Amino acid sequence: MATHILLFVVAVVATAINSVAGGGGLLTFPVLMTVLPPVTADATSAVALLPAYMTSTWAGRKHLAPVRHWFWRLLLPGLLGSLLGALLLNWSGNRSFTALIPWLVLIASLLTLRPLLTRTPHSGQSLGVDAPIETTSAPSVSLQVGASVLLFVVAIYGGYLALALAFG
Fold first, then answer.
1. pLDDT at 106 over 60
2. Where are the domains of the chain?
3. How many whole angstroms separate alpha carbon 110 and alpha carbon 39?
4. Residues 137-162: tens digit of each pLDDT
5. Coil/strand/helix, residue 69
6. 24 DSSP 8-state letter
7. Which of 81, 101, 103, 140 is the most buried (most CB within 10 A)?
8. For residue 21, what are the contacts with CB-CB under 8 A and spacing of at least 6?
9. How far apart are the first and last CA of the chain?
């Protein structure tokens, strides 16, 4: 019974964290690993936090309007990278995943902390909540290609870490 209560509390806190800044899986995944195999814990964490991603995106949609053109440019690299990451997880199995867990969590932690560490005093409120909406100019071709490649690589990581359910 205590385990169920702990899982419930962690899920609520992780959902709140995800809706504000992301990174809730850094809480749910380790807790779920105490009762589930690693790949199953990863998949369960990803599915459990999915509503928080959707609701926070919906709530912040007005802030996404100036960069809407990026969505279509980055959709294909994101989908392909995620699929490749999920296939790599399926191919490598629990043993490799277990060996990589500390490194994957470290990378995710650093990516989550980066905006907090690099924020400048004049960059607006913390975490950009209710920050003014800025307009953007058309991105250069080199920026588009660079962003596509970077997103592809990050999506492989995300597919490996968070899409285990599809093939696990």
1. yes
2. 2-62+70-118+138-167
3. 22
4. 667 888 888 888 988 988 887 777 76
5. helix
6. T
7. 81
8. 112, 115, 127
9. 27
